[in-house]
Amino acid sequence: MKWLSPMAFLVLVSSTSLDAPTSDPANEEAPPPPDEIEECQEGVKGLREGIEGLEFFLQDKKDKKKFCPNIRWEQPKLEKYKKKPMSYLPESCIK
User: Fold this and answer.
1) Is residue 9 situated within a structural domain?
2) CA–CA distance from 3 to each of 6, 9, 12, 59, 63 (Å)?
3) pTM of the entire predicted model
4) Residue 60, exposed/middle/buried by CB under 10 A (0-12, 13-18, 19+)?
5) Is position 55 within any domain?
6) How crowded is residue 87: how many other Cβ atoms within 10 Å of its Cβ?
7) What is the pLDDT of residues 27-75, one digit of tens each?
8) Nearest-angstrom CA–CA distance, 81 and 91
């Protein structure tokens, strides 16, 4: 049997983890998310709705010019689209 050199022994010992978990982490219950995570999730939800609202706002503007430039329609403010993301084009204009 061949003996390990001191350097190889140190490398071998340093590569092993002494902090290995003793229990299966899948069996442990996850702690409830901190308030910061919940706030972040709410912020992401608000951002997503704002982006969807902006997309509908711009699409309505584009579709109005393309499909029904002759009808009189005042586009709602962007804030309305952000509160409830959907198309606000009149039924007579929708394809």
Assistant:
1) no
2) 9, 9, 13, 74, 79
3) 0.58
4) buried
5) yes
6) 13
7) 677 766 678 888 888 888 888 888 999 999 999 999 999 999 999 999 9
8) 17
Residue 69: inside a domain, yes or no? yes
Q: How many CB atoms lie within 10 A of CB 33?
A: 11
Residue 63, Cβ density class (10 Å: 0-12 exposed, 13-18 middle, ≥19 buried): middle
Using CA atoms, how far residue 65 sits from 7, 8, 71, 87, in Å, is 75, 74, 10, 14
Q: Could you tell me how many residues make up the chain?
A: 95
As for how many domains the chain has, the answer is 1
- Residue by residue, DSSP assigns 1-28 as -PPPPHHHHHHHHHHS-S---SS-GGGS
Ranges assigned E (strand) in the chain:
none
Residue 84 lies in a domain: yes
Q: Residue 55: which domain range? A: 36-95
